[in-house]
């Protein structure tokens, strides 16, 4: 298996990062990646102004990041297969010509940002528009269209996405605390897989 994580000239890349061979990453020098990140085959990522992927992040196959703006994904965020994240857009009101084949100044693309906070999960085939912040712990159902900010710890579904019900917070935070106690040293440094002590097996297993 070919891992692109340590072959491409990223601005920063942490430990235990795996980027499958058929993922296509443009402008990797504008991308910072934390620890324990997986990017599947057939992901297309155009870094734009800047892309920050924190730790414990997964981006599923056939997803894409486009638009030329800013993307921030915080710890434990996940993107399922076929998701479209747009960090920029065209002028649909007629103020300029549109599409990348048109040179400046005739085309005036609008650069924006998408901020996906901790513990967010994005369902398959969801589309996220520019200028959106998805609050901590929010969950977006499959095939949703996210055009506005999403509240923390809320499940959203539909096109456009609307709040459906709340998501359990306490258990997720409890598990995060436990994981950090096991995978980080006393100074707060991530312990890579190769350096971890094997976990003790229970009797009979």
How would you sum up this structure, described in words?
By secondary structure, this protein is mostly beta strands. The chain has a single domain (4-167), classed as UDP N-Acetylglucosamine Acyltransferase, domain 1 (3 Solenoid). 7% of the residues lie in helices and 31% in strands. It contains one helix and 22 strands. It has one helix at 170-183; strands at residues 12-13, 17-19, 24-26, 31-33, 37-39, 44-46, 50-53, 57-59, 64-66, 70-73, 78-79, 84-86, 88-89, 110-111, 113-116, 121-122, 127-128, 132-134, 139-140, 145-146, 154-157, 162-166. The strands form four sheets. Strands 2-5-8-11-16-19-21-22 form an eight-stranded mixed beta sheet, with no helix packed on it. The protein has a six-stranded parallel beta sheet with strand order 1-4-7-10-15-18, with no helix packed on it.
How many helices in DSSP terms? 1
Determine the strand fraction and express it as a percent band. Answer: 25-35%
Distance between the termini: 30 Å
**Second rung of CATH, namely the architecture:** 3 Solenoid
Please, how many domains? Answer: 1
Average pLDDT number: 94
Number of strands: 22
> Rough shape?
globular
CATH 4th-level superfamily: Hexapeptide repeat proteins
């Amino acid at each position: 298996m070919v891992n692109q994580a340590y072959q491409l000239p990223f601005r920063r890349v942490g430990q235990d990062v795996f980027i499958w061979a058929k993922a296509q990453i443009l402008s990797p020098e504008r991308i910072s990646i934390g620890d324990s990140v997986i990017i599947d085959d057939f992901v297309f990522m155009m870094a734009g102004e800047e892309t920050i992927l924190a730790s414990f992040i997964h981006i599923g196959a056939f997803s894409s990041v486009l638009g030329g703006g800013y993307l921030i994904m915080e710890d434990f965020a996940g993107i399922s297969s076929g998701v479209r994240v747009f960090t920029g857009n065209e002028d649909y009101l007629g103020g300029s010509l549109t599409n990348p084949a048109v040179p400046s100044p005739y085309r005036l693309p609008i650069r924006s940002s998408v901020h996906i906070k901790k513990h967010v999960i994005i369902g398959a085939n969801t589309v996220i528009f520019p200028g959106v912040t998805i609050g901590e712990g929010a969950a977006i159902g499959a095939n949703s269209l996210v055009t506005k900010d999403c509240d923390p710890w809320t499940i959203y579904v539909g096109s456009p996405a609307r709040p459906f019900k709340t998501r359990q917070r306490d258990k997720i935070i409890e598990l995060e605390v436990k994981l950090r106690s096991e995978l980080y040293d006393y100074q707060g440094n991530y312990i890579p897989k190769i350096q971890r002590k094997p976990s003790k097996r229970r009797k009979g297993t």
